[in-house]
Amino acid sequence: MGLEELKGAPEERETLFRLFVGDNSDRVIEIFRAQEKGEIGIFLNWAVILFGSVWFFYRKMPFMGGLYFVIPILVFIIFPRNSVIFFLLYNPMVAGVADALFVWKARRCINRSEVMFSDQEQREAWIERKGGYSMLGLLLGVGVEGGMLLLAT
């Protein structure tokens, strides 16, 4: 079993996934269901297009938020002449995979919880705490994004 595959009945997996996502899980649950069926698709996340890395920090994915900044810098350093095309396509490309990355993180967390906890109540509390969103992450993302904008000017 890979980290992406979840055990248990589909209803239980969806319930745990909803716990991880938190409020407004309906949009992301569609992606979860599609992945459960083995479908691959691109689901454009408008929040990522509008707010960039802030969304990753808000959704407790600081590593991805950091990568969001590092990748364009590396592209500019390595391919300075071709970077304009990359920059035009970068946000839509990231927005197309952001939700899939979030679903992958949820699956990973749910699988870990199964190994870590035998008590269902503890497991659900841990999943809920690991998922959702973070206001501190939101502030951190805004600070990082603002700092990058200041450095760029």
Automatic annotation (TrEMBL):
Record keyword Membrane present: yes
Residues annotated as transmembrane: 40-58, 63-79, 85-104, 133-152
Keywords annotated in UniProt: Membrane, Transmembrane, Transmembrane helix
Organism field: Aestuariispira insulae
Protein name: DUF2628 domain-containing protein
Domain of life from the UniProt record: Bacteria
